């Protein structure tokens, strides 16, 4: 009887391990074993990190640019996967919204929110963080660049977050899906991303398999998020942040911005 019970529990653990999370059972401390992701444990350039605000730098001499090929806006699928609210194209293909750095083009794969923020500034986390994940191609070996914006609650909603985080558009339960039509990515990046105030470093994905070599851009301008929208996010996904990693191993700066 005990043997059968043990096998059942082991089977249940394997099934649950198909999707990582942020609890004691499926969270960051289990990523190495449950997901066969050794970099999550022994990687030397892991993310997120704690950033000294004095390291936010000016990259205007080698700027990161964005190319918006659909000015009328993108149709996005919004899915609650249990640990994040994720925005993708409706067919999971790469969106034709591009990040260009050092002559290399990356297309937007997805963007998703964490509560609270994963990165910290001066050892203080923010209420939320969004990650825009760009890839050079759809393959597993694609180059990856991520743009992160931190948020703190504000009493005044600000476009476009008030529109895409409307309670009617954020799936409240796991595996629920909604659709957003006409989201203008170019307009948002034109207003929110500033090459004069960004921290760039080479780190990793913050979820299994914690792949390294990721080109990070963390904005030094903390964005406002409406209190209603923040509560809606937190209710939908709860705690969803990997702890900061040891800063001396966290990454190597690029463009002279964010020297450790």
Automatic annotation (TrEMBL):
CDD domains: alpha_CA_prokaryotic_like
Name of the protein this chain belongs to: carbonic anhydrase
Domain of life: Eukaryota
Leader sequence residues: 1-17
Family: Belongs to the alpha-carbonic anhydrase family.
Gene3D superfamilies reported for this sequence: Alpha carbonic anhydrase
Keyword Metal-binding: yes
Catalysed reactions listed for this entry: hydrogencarbonate + H(+) = CO2 + H2O
Enzyme kind, highest EC tier: lyase
One term of GO molecular function: carbonate dehydratase activity
Organism of provenance: Ambispora leptoticha
Location of the Alpha-carbonic anhydrase domain: 18-260
Keyword terms, alphabetized: Lyase, Metal-binding, Signal, Zinc
Enzyme Commission code(s) on record: 4.2.1.1
């Amino acid at each position: 009887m005990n043997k059968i019970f043990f096998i059942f529990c082991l089977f249940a653990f394997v099934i649950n391990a198909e999707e990582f999370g942020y609890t004691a059972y499926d969270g960051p401390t289990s990523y190495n074993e449950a997901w066969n992701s050794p970099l999550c444990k022994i990687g030397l350039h892991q993310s997120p990190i704690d950033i000294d605000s004095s390291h936010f730098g000016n990259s205007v001499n080698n700027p990161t640019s964005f190319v918006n090929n659909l000015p009328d806006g993108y149709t996005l699928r919004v899915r609650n996967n249990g640990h994040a609210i994720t925005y993708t194209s409706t067919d999971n293909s790469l969106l034709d919204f591009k990040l260009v750095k050092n002559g290399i083009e990356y297309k937007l794969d997805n963007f998703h929110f964490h509560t609270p923020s994963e990165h910290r500034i001066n050892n203080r986390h923010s209420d939320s963080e969004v990650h825009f994940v760009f890839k050079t191609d759809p393959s597993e070996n694609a180059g990856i660049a991520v743009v992160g914006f931190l948020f703190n609650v504000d009493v005044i909603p600000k476009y476009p977050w008030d529109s895409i985080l409307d309670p009617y558009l954020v799936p409240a339960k796991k595996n629920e899906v909604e659709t957003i039509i006409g989201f203008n990515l170019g307009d948002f990046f034109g207003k929110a991303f500033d090459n004069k105030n960004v921290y760039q470093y080479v780190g990793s994905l913050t979820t299994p398999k914690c792949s390294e070599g990721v080109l990070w851009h963390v904005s030094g301008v903390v964005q406002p998020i409406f209190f209603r929208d923040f509560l809606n996010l937190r209710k939908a996904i709860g705690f969803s942040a990997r702890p900061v990693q040891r800063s001396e191993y966290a990454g190597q700066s690029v463009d002279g911005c964010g020297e450790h």
